[in-house]
Amino acid sequence: MTVHTPAADGAAEAALPAAPCERGATVWLTGLPSAGKTTLAFALAERLRSEGHKVEVLDGDEIREFLSRGLGFSREDRHTNVTRIGFVAEKLAANGVKVLAPVIAPFAASRAAVRERHAANGTEFLEVHVATPVELCAERDVKGLYAKQAAGEISGLTGVDDPYEAPENPELRVLTQGREVADSTAELHAFLTERGLA
């Protein structure tokens, strides 16, 4: 029979890894097309999951396909899309999930509506501006949107011929120009750690 002494029990407890924070929150990554929002969201999600956190990434393109199919890109449709994502994000965050939402959400009023929904339910909402200059976004052009706009094949590209209202007072502004993804991810993780979420 094994006898546990207080000292032995204390040593065993000290050896156990710390339990991850189970408090949910929505981290909304807004920025221009090809700013790096989705790349950062998935990199951060991987790190948080490795630490035992419950994480969901609500990718804007996937939401467009599965939740907002049929919506266009008018101001009204964009607002509807953003508020739908915000609704899902708040429900998940209220149940202890770290929700990462890499979504352009070009209009301040739409992002404010999402923030208000979270506040009304006592759920944490953190706005992160992935502040990448439009010139660099056009160089990256992950989806070829800037090239299509320049060729006259599409119009209404956010930040080029359609407005993007950058956040005036986000909880965090990440400057990606001249930085590695790992550095920006580390900044995001440190930010969440300061907030008691990582």
CATH superfamily label = P-loop containing nucleotide triphosphate hydrolases
**Can you tell me the overall shape?**
globular
**Low-confidence parts, pLDDT < 50 over ≥5 residues?**
1-8, 10-14
Placed side by side, the strands forming the largest sheet appear as: 2-3-1-4-5
* Radius of gyration, CA atoms, in whole angstroms: 20 Å
CATH topology: Rossmann fold
What is the string of SSEs from the N terminus onward? HEHEHHEHEHHEH
> How far is the first residue's CA from the last residue's CA?
39 Å
> Can you summarize the main beta sheet?
5 strands, parallel
Supply the number of helical segments: 8
Number of strands: 5
Task: Examine the secondary-structure arrangement and name the CATH architecture.
Answer: 3-Layer(aba) Sandwich
Structural account:
There is one protein chain. By secondary structure, the chain is α/β, with parallel strands linked by helices. The protein has one domain (28-194): Rossmann fold, CATH 3.40.50. Helices cover 45% and strands 12% of the residues. It contains eight helices and five strands; from the N terminus they run H-E-H-E-H-H-E-H-E-H-H-E-H. It has helices at 6-15, 37-50, 60-66, 75-93, 108-120, 134-140, 145-150, 181-194, and strands at residues 25-30, 55-57, 98-102, 125-130, 172-174. A five-stranded parallel beta sheet has the order 2-3-1-4-5, sandwiched between helices. Helix 2 (37-50) packs across helix 8. The chain is globular and about 50 Å long. The model is unreliable at 1-8 and 10-14 (pLDDT under 50).
